[in-house]
Amino acid sequence: MNAAERIAALRAEIDTVDEDLVRLLNRRAGWALKIGRSKRAMGLRIYEPERESEIIARVGRLNGGPLSRAALQRLFERIIDESRSLERVPEESTGSDAQPSGNSAS
Fold this sequence. Notes:
Layout: H1 3-42, H2 49-62, H3 69-87, H4 91-94
Helix pairs in contact: 1-3, 2-3
């Protein structure tokens, strides 16, 4: 296998991981929608800095590299920010079929 073929094979592996990430991010987003609905029903605030700090600390402990802890923190801050935006979406805007699932179409 020449260098170009090795690069193409590695890029195919990245493409597979990207597909998994999209599926998992959408699954996480579905759970965020459900949490947002529950928070609204209970009259709770959407923004919970303590919980967000817990998530950042937990994923930092899970990190085995090669991403730095700071890089992972920046990624998860963005994921959490998007999740918080979803939590604020009124139920009418998402439809009643927005459910957490492994399907990227959800």
